[in-house]
Write a structure and sequence with these properties.
The protein has 531 residues and is an alpha/beta fold. The protein folds into three domains: 262 residues, TIM Barrel, CATH 3.20.20; 87 residues, no CATH class; 57 residues, 2-Layer Sandwich (Double Stranded RNA Binding Domain). It contains 19 helices and 16 strands. An eight-stranded parallel barrel has the order 2-3-4-5-6-7-8-9, surrounded by seven helices. The chain has a three-stranded antiparallel β-sheet with strand order 11-12-13, with helices on one face. A three-stranded antiparallel β-sheet has the order 14-15-16. A hairpin with a 5-residue loop joins strand 15 and strand 16. About 2% of the residues have low confidence.
């Protein structure tokens, strides 16, 4: 039986950016776009070109390799032509594969928010879609507050959807914008929309204000829609959006969907979904939800008792899916075999070749587990993990030894009477038996250490000429005066345009930072082929 195609549209970089407390930098958006490609979604909505400097820079070039890079924007303003709408023209000029325009589909909002007639709104939808299609890219319309609009005036809500489809929209997306619609309502209304728009041109966009975003998305699919919009880990304004990290395994592993639909995301992609979810949380500088479906640390954990003893004998009867299929693992007993399988998969992704029978893998696995118990999290620190793995396999030269480092912070009045804070770092290195000492000042202790460490690497200096630190995140793993600190550093090589993350953990924030800095330089030298 031929399966129907189901499409996944990620809106983390736009809708997810509206989450309270989240503000993506350009570099973070670039890294998240890479995660979306790794996950295998069909569309990655990057934001609103021209709305702010961050989105404008992000859209200066195409940011995805596999997913269709999508720009978000508003439909044409009433009373203006397409060519005389600067905002619309900026979106149409973006280097993207598709456009997603938000349109009012509730007649109340047309009157109150847009201040135009219902007919002018329909005209704006039609002309916007036609202009987008004329560029040769895909056009889609997000019908904002569609379900509220349908309940208030079904004829007009349907007219908005039909107008978009008739104008050439590839997708007409029905939005439960305030998250208040329930699954039975979603299913019933979607069924009626298909009288004017076929299901293979319909999408669903749900919010989680009643805790039904995933259920509503599935209800819409059951009713006929073939595109689902959502975000990584369900982030979004208020209570969040439909969580693609939960939806994807459900669609791929549950027979009621897996037997009917084909996705761009494969079973192979699925084995990385736990590490992708955790890496995304690390980018946000927050702890992963331990109880998250499929990917949480406790998703397949069972405490002692009758279930624990039984699961050892027959785990399939106590787990709704095999943990390994989503890159997770069982927590009842420590399964070295499952752990080794995950480790081999991660090594393969990084291009590290090793036989599964290699005894060094056991030592590496034990080392990783010990470090994770101490606070390391390698899902978002590929460079540090690769260094750890290659060292265990004897593949990393010892480029230099750090004999000692020292940082001083001085707060004083400068020559013009301003109160300033100055940091000075001293780093002593051993390179091929030769002692080297570098001193540097910086804007804070970490910047001073970074400058001192990279000031004089002797024969390796040219290999790090393009190296720069572009992001720095700190998380306190436990409270109190003896708190353990995790530092995540993002580095970039301006010569090769390669970027990577390294990690350090210590009760001392400066020491944790220095660990991550040393890893960053070692990784740069490794990739440069230094010897």
């Amino acid at each position: 039986m031929t399966k129907e195609r189901l499409y996944l549209f990620d809106t983390t970089l736009r809708d997810g950016a509206q989450t309270s407390g989240i503000d993506f930098s350009v570099n973070e958006k670039i890294v998240i776009a890479e995660l979306l490609d790794r996950l295998g979604v069909d569309y990655a909505e990057g934001g609103y070109p021209g709305a702010n400097p961050t989105d404008t820079e992000f859209f200066s070039k195409k940011r995805t390799q596999k997913a269709k890079f999508t720009a978000f924007g508003m439909t044409k303003r009433a009373g203006r032509s397409v060519s005389n709408d600067p905002g619309l023209q900026q979106i149409l000029a973006a280097e993207v594969d598709a456009y997603c325009f938000v349109a009012k589909s509730w007649d109340y909002h047309v009157k109150v928010a847009l201040g135009c007639t219902n007919e002018e709104n329909l005209e704006g939808i039609s002309e916007t879609v036609k202009a987008a299609v004329a560029t040769g890219r895909e056009a889609m319309i997000d019908c904002e507050h569609f379900f509220d609009g349908f309940k208030a005036n079904p004829e007009y809500a349907l007219a908005c959807a039909k107008t978009a489809y008739d104008a050439g929209a590839r997708w007409v997306v029905l939005c439960d914008t305030n998250g208040g619609t329930l699954p039975d309502e979603i299913k019933g209304i979607v069924g009626k929309v298909q009288a004017v728009v076929p299901g293979d041109h319909l999408g669903i966009h749900t919010h989680d204000d009643t805790g039904h975003a995933i259920a509503n998305s599935l209800a819409a699919v059951d009713a006929g829609v073939r595109q689902i919009q959502g975000t990584l880990n369900g982030i979004g304004e208020r209570c969040g959006n439909a969580n693609l990290i939960t939806l994807i395994p459900t669609l791929l592993l549950k027979s009621s969907y897996a037997d009917r639909f084909a996705l761009a995301v494969t079973r192979e992609h699925l084995t990385e979904i736990t590490s992708i979810a955790h890496a995304f949380d690390e980018i946000l500088n927050r702890s992963p939800d331990r109880h998250a479906p499929y990917v949480g640390e406790t998703a397949f954990a069972t405490k002692a008792g009758i279930h624990a003893s039984a699961i050892l004998k027959d785990p399939q009867t106590y787990e709704h899916v095999a943990p390994e299929t989503v890159g997770n693992r069982r927590r009842v007993l420590v399964s070295d075999q499952a752990g080794k399988s995950n480790l081999l998969g991660e090594l393969a992704r990084l291009g590290v070749e090793v036989e599964k029978t290699d005894p060094r893998l056991d030592r590496l696995l034990a080392d990783v587990k010990q470090r994770e118990a101490e606070g390391y999290a390698y899902e978002a620190a590929d460079a540090s993990f690769e260094l750890l793995a290659r060292r265990a396999l004897g593949e990393v030269p010892r480029f230099f030894e750090v004999n000692s480092f020292r940082v001083m912070v001085e707060r004083r009045f400068n020559a013009v009477g301003d109160l300033v804070s100055m940091s000075e770092a001293v780093v002593k290195l051993d390179i091929d038996g030769e002692q080297r000492m570098s001193v540097a000042e910086g804007n804070g202790p970490v910047n001073a250490l970074d400058r001192a460490l990279r000031k004089d690497l002797g024969k390796y200096q040219t290999a790090i000429d393009g190296l720069e630190l572009i992001d720095y995140k700190v998380r306190i793993l436990n409270g109190g005066t003896g708190a353990v600190t995790r530092v995540l550093i993002e580095s970039h090589d301006t010569t090769t345009h390669r970027r990577w993350f390294t990690i350090g953990v210590s009760s001392n924030i400066v020491d944790a930072s220095f660990q991550a800095l040393v890893d960053s330089i070692n990784y740069a030298l490794l990739k440069a082929g230094a010897v």
